[in-house]
Amino acid sequence: MKKKQLSALVAIALISIGGGHDTVYAAHDENLNEYTLDDVVVSAERTKDQFGDTITEQSYYRTGGDVKVITREEIEKRHYLDLTEAIKRIPGITFQNPGYRGGEYGYEFYNNGISINGDTRVIILIDGRRVDNLTSTRVGDTSTSGTKSTGVNLDQMLGIESVDKIEVIKGPGASVYGPDATGGVINIITRKGGEKQRGTLDLSTGAWHKHNYALTLSGNAFSPHDLRYFFTASRNMSGDTKFVDGESGITGTLGGSEFKEDALNIRLDKKLGDKQNLKLWYNFKQGKDGYPIATPAQKYWNESDWNRIIFNAAVGQLDANNAIKGAIDPNDHIWKPERTLAGATRNPGYRNLFALDGQVYRSFSRFKNNDWELTWTFHKENGMESFVRLYDQNHRYANRDYYRWRLGNKSATDLANEYHAAFPHGATNEQLQEWIRENLAPFPGGDQNRVKEWLAKTGGTAKEPTSWQEERNRGVQVQYAKALGKNDVIASLTYDRAKNFSKSLRNNGTVRQSHTTRSSILGYVQDKIHVSDKFDITPALRYSYYSSYESTTTGDAVQGKGKSHLITPALNLQYTFDYSTSLYFGWTKIYRPLRQGDYTEVNGVFNTPLEDERGNVWTIGVQKEFSERTSAAVHYDWTRMSNAVATLPIWDGTEFSSTAVNAREDKKSFNLTFDHKFNKHVTMSASYSHMLDKWSAKSGWILDPNWGYQGGHDINTQINRLRPANHYALNLSYEKGRLYTGLLANWYTGASRNAFTSSRFLILDWNLNYEVTKDLTAYMVINNLTNQGYETSFNSWTGLGGAAMPGRSWMIGARYNF
């Protein structure tokens, strides 16, 4: 009772102090009180516009909504190692990845999934340019909520040293970037050179054999305002991640979660005049990451349970309830397999088999990105830019997933038939143990000689990739912006040609190849009408055209819908009452074309092809600046999708089959944020986020009772329990003289015990900076300070705790400016 009361008091306290702290950093002359963002002059004392939104290089795109900005100053003071670390303190942001770099390409819940207010339809941008690929198949058909990400792994895009700011825009305020930005947009703004020559060297090392090296050089190559350059090169590497098993409390090692990644970024900005400039940007990043799929279940991490799990998965289930007990009963001498069992629900601890990938075979994923962009800005007016942009984005992926826990190319059916032939009347316990030793993989944590023998039998460790994939985007964007009295008009047109080439080597020796292309034309027109100094109205129209998929495939049919197009409107309002209180309202028509990974088959249970996702999003919010030290904001959005795509286990008349269907979705979310500066040394920001989905299923649906909760027939209960209901964040910082320290607390509550190992998790991250000299800073970072075992997502295949996040880790380092 006391524990519940304490939790309630903490919740009330966090709500009462409320969200995301926005600071703005820019290189500026120490003798001046202002700096410039392109042609916009910003006072150093006023870094927000009249509506309370932080000003950045691309503020003119925004048309209202909840906007949070991570600045370069914060990135350097908090020493974020990657993009996901940087934005996890934003209210409403949730990461649905298991917490490591690698993973299985092609499956959403194994990778870096990001949601904003519960919606994974999030657009990722670099300098305002979309980086997703329409033909990507790296996000598969495993979503149970119907919300689909763009297939972008955020941490693989570019190194954190090349990032100047990160804008997170929620809701229709980001509709300029696409009618499918249902959840919102994450816009990464890259760094460019300043007027002065500058360099930095950042070196750090820490837990799990983590090492980070980063070098940056920037400045002006010739005369002032002539040619600015920015260059950075970095390497990040780590050994296997440790995690805390939420069920047992045991700290384990996630075998195969090591990674090594290199990044290089070059940006050149040539000023051609007061309103013209040329930008050339090149980005390279590559990595070899481990290939774990799930964290091992520690309570089943023993040889007895391993044999039970692997036998059930390969052949069938034990008679006399042995499979349910989770142990082999030596008094039960007859084993009678009945049917193949896979997944945590039917075979508890099933995910332990995946440990073979990481701990034994050391399977891996590789990626290599080569991106360039050339942009000629030929006019600037009122902070708006007119430009022509050419870009080429080439991303290559390869992986080796060996996962060999049975000999040869035998299927589960083959093994079952062999077992039945060998023991038509059932096997004794001794016979079974011998059969397992001869046919199935040994326990990875047991006799290492047996493990080595198994490796020899199955071809040894993974060395060469078995699947390759190349995604390429080439395109051109033209934008023209003009101020006409009280009207700021922006019109843009983008042509993008997306390609995907994939090849995979299958177990039977055959090769499957696929070459898929799809083109799109996206047009956008908005008119920001400055009705008065206090009131803006921004109507907009977007035209979206998507060609049919052009494909040549061997082995399987390429899925996807044909040609489609639609005009979608949007309307956004911003009003400030007294320059301290502002209100925004937004509405946009959502249109998201089907992608190949949205469904497993063209015709589902009801023999009806899927339709493109459509719907509406409304958002409303209030921002209040009580004083120069204190501000607060409330944000609410409401999404209604008429035919959102969901993949659900539905009874098809003979069995429960994973089937993609169009369903109605009604999602609501609420964010409360509060910022306060206690004095010149101590600042605080806090937030609370809550979201709720309601799905309307078609009549006649029957869901697999083993898949969900409360008998399996309540879709809404199942969807909402796949994430914590509430997210509180508290961000504290202290700065005095040479010392800076910060503490970030993320508290998740309302988590279902059917999907999570605890109903609440409190995660603490802490860092400390000390300026040894003017140019040398020493620092320490500790993530997950209390070594909390926790998860932020659930999947029935891997089971409770299968996506355990990393345990406590630390880094110490130094940053030198020259």
Number of helices: 10
Strand content: 35-45%
Fraction of residues in helices? 10-25%
In angstroms, what separates the terminal alpha carbons? 57 Å
Low-confidence stretches: 1-46, 105-110, 139-147, 318-333, 600-606, 708-713
Given helix and strand content, the structural type is: mainly beta
What's the rounded overall pLDDT mean?
Answer: 81
Cα shape: globular
Q: Quick one: how many beta strands?
A: 34
Largest sheet: 22 strands, antiparallel, barrel
Question: Using only CA atoms, what is the Rg?
Answer: 27 Å
Describe the structure.
The chain has 818 residues and is mainly beta. Helix content is 11%, strand content 45%. The strands form five sheets. It has a 22-stranded antiparallel β-barrel. Strand 24 and strand 25 (581-592) form a beta hairpin. The longest helix has 16 residues, at 2-17. The protein starts with a helix and ends with a strand. 48% of the residues are buried.
